[in-house]
Structure formats: structure tokens, C-alpha cells
Amino acid sequence: MAEIVLDGVSKSFGSGQRVVDGMRLRIRDGEVFVLLGPSGCGKSTVLRMIAGLEEITSGDLWMDGRHANDLEPRDRDVAMIFQSGALYPHMSVRQNIGFPLRLAKEEPGETAEKVTEMARALGLDGLLGRKPATLSGGQRQRVAMGRAMVREPSVFLMDEPLSSLDAGLRTELRMEIGGMVRSLGATTVYVTHDQIEALTLADRIGVMRDGVLQDVGTPQQVYDDPATVFVAAFLSSPQLNLLGGTAWAVRDEGIVISLGDQQITLPWSDPRAHAFVPHHGRPVIVGLRPESLTPVAEPSGGPVLAARLRSAEFHGHEWMAFAEVNIPGVDVDAVGARPKPRPEEERTDRPWRGLLRRRPAAPVEEPRHVGQRRRTDLLFRAGETRSMVQGARVNLAVDLDRALFFAANGRRIDTPAR
Ligand SMILES: Nc1ncnc2c1ncn2[C@@H]1O[C@H](COP(=O)(O)OP(=O)(O)OP(=O)(O)O)[C@@H](O)[C@H]1O
Ligand SMILES: [Mg+2]
Description:
Blueprint: E1 4-12, E2 18-27, E3 32-36, H1 43-51, E4 58-63, E5 66-67, E6 78-81, H2 93-103, H3 108-121, H4 137-149, E7 155-159, H5 167-184, E8 187-192, H6 195-201, E9 204-209, E10 212-217, H7 219-224, H8 229-235, E11 241-250, E12 254-259, E13 262-267, E14 283-288, E15 293-296, E16 304-314, E17 319-325, E18 329-330, E19 372-373, E20 376-381, E21 393-398, E22 404-407
Parallel strand pairs: 3-8, 3-9, 6-7, 7-8
Antiparallel strand pairs: 1-2, 1-4, 4-5, 9-10, 11-12, 11-14, 12-13, 14-22, 15-21, 16-17, 16-21, 17-20, 18-19
Helix pairs in contact: 2-3, 2-4, 4-5
The protein binds adenosine-5'-triphosphate and magnesium ion.
Adenosine-5'-triphosphate (ATP) is lined by residues 13, 19, 37, 39-45, 193.
């Protein structure tokens, strides 16, 4: 019903810096697109520009093939749902849901029928005569959704519609929202800072940071193949382990990444290894999700990090453990933050110049990382390790296939093609 195209859309308030910066995005007809990012990154501002509630400073907005920068909100055929679904307090649930239809001067019989149908779909049948003040938060939010959906707009804009609800209700309504907007076939832009909500609800996710779109893709793409270290860390739950190291291209071995007094090697047979060559001798960031680290009794040939157990936490369905390694950590907030990273200057002229013939003897004089910390606690799924005592040595086998590698400016070294 409607494709939404943002072509270099920016927004600044007054003479301040851009809170949305050169956004380029094509939201497909009928898809559920989730804009994800931390507080203050500009999500609501983007949504409000699409709704026509906020003027666009520069760039172009296209909706359904029409240039929409100057379209009145009422001419955009959008319905917006906010965090606290504001209802008309003096109207009953029935009147609230039917309000947009009455405004559009629909025939009363038809209005009544649509309201009844919408109330049934949202599980509000028994509450049609009640006033908002007598409803729970979850019920009120359902009424707000019913009111937005009843006139079947071609675009839904939802701004953290579930964030004021408790966890159980959130999961339930999330599934309902997904089902309903898909069955209506409307294009939906859904804003949230909750990565689980984004991963479970979206057809595609756009991840924002400081007004800039960092990555766009299906949930699986942005999770498995994040474009930047920020995206990887933001989508990881439990947290992503980030280690600061230095990449060394070693002729007969591959890419040796020295990590403090340890190292892991990406053999030349790994298709990612060649992308490291321009980073020879430079700082790199290794991202390891807890699921990429497995405690093993004895190192069995593959890459292993030796660590010292610090603590274990019971999470109900599993134990998570922290183990300390003598490897610099990386503070993701300090990497690639504004001023925006410029593309890494790549030494493509003679990439093999200066290649090492042998692996470097540790310790190596290493370039420092932005936001570097001296030691890191690695988080991993503990399995049997929970019986181990604090301070015990633990060997963590690294699943190299799932490891993520970033340059010091936070961009992926083996850039995903999307
Ligand atoms: N009317 C305004 N005047 C000045 N600055 C504004 C205005 N509205 C938003 N901003 C600023 O623009 C930036 C982005 O705000 P926005 O509300 O879009 O963020 P958000 O991603 O929706 O955050 P949250 O998750 O907290 O809702 C913030 O720094 C905010 O302070
Ligand atoms: Mg917001």
C-alpha cells in the first residue's frame, strides 16, 4: 500500500547539530520495519518527520511515490501510536475506537460493525462501554491500537508502544501487533530501544546511533553480520565480549591477532583472512558473543583463550560465568562515536609490504585502542564450570566462525555485503 523512501533526510533543531543525519532508507511496501537505537539517537524524530509532525531540514521524503516533505499529516494516510496511547478520557472504549471513523463521516452502522470486529481482534469485547480511567495500562494501549487500526491506514507509525507495559504483556501484545499489521498489509515503522522486540517483530531492522543509520537488514543479518561494533554490541544479549588486539599478517600462518599475552590465528584458508591485510600492524577489535566461547578441559588444537574464573551467575535456565583475561577491553561507546569515522585509509598499493615472516614475539609494542581498558572479564555460558572455584584457570575454546572482527573505528573488517 505504501513504500516510504528517505533520501538523505536530515533534521536539526534551530542552529544545533543534526539529530538525524543524512538518512537513506527504503521501507518496503507492507513490511514491518523496526528502527532500533539507544535513547536520544533520533528515532522519534525520524518517525515524526514521516508523520508530518516535524519539518524536514534537508533531504527528501517519498511516500507511495509522492514527494511528501510538505504534505499535511492528514494527507499522508498514516496512523501513529505513542508510548502512552493517549485516549479521550470522556469517551467509552467503543467511542474511542470509532472516533476516526466518525471523523471520516462513515456510515454509523458500518462504524459499529468495524468497532465490534476490532474490539474482538484485540480482546476488548467485554470492555466497550468502559471509560479509559477504569482500564489497565495494557487495555488502554490496546484501545489506542484499535483506534489507530480501525480506519486501515496504509502506514502505521509506532513509537515504543509497549514500553510502559510489564514484560508478560509486552510479549503478548508484540505478537498481536505483528499479526495484525501483517494481516492488514500496512507498512509499519516501529520504534524501540529494545533489541529483543526488534529481533522478534521486524521484517527488517535499521540500527541508529547519534542520528546516523549504522546498519539495515533482516534480524538475522544484523545479528549475525553486523556492520559495526556498535550494532553488534547493541544487538547482543547477554553482552558481547570485546577484546582489543593487533592484527599481524604472517606469511605461512595467516592473520595472527595478538590479544594481550595471548593470540588467535585466522588461517589463510579462512576467506576473511585476506580482508585483514590492509590492517597489518594495526589495532583491531575482536567481538565474541558468549555462545562463541566454550569452556574446555584441555585445549584441543583450535584457538583457546586462557582465563581465570571470577564469578558465576545463576540465570534460571543456565549459568553464566565471568573469567578474567589479561587482554585490553574495548569501550564500545568510545569507538566510532561522533565525530563520525572516516573510512579507514587503506594501504592497497602494496598490501603485502612489511608482512611478517614469523609470528611476533610477545609482548609486542601495540597501538592503543580508543576507550581501552587493561583487563577484560569474558562472559560465557558456564555449563559444568559452575562447580569450579573462584580463581581457577579455565580454557575457553573460541568458535572462530562466529567471531566478529572490527577495525579500530568500529567498522567490520570483512564488511557484510547488503
Ligand atoms: N523539539 C526539539 N528541540 C530540540 N531538540 C530536540 C527536540 N526534539 C528532539 N530533540 C533532540 O533530538 C535528539 C533525538 O531525539 P529523539 O526524541 O528523536 O530521540 P529518540 O531516539 O526517540 O530517544 P528516546 O529513545 O529517548 O525516545 C535528542 O538529542 C533530543 O534532545
Ligand atoms: Mg523517542
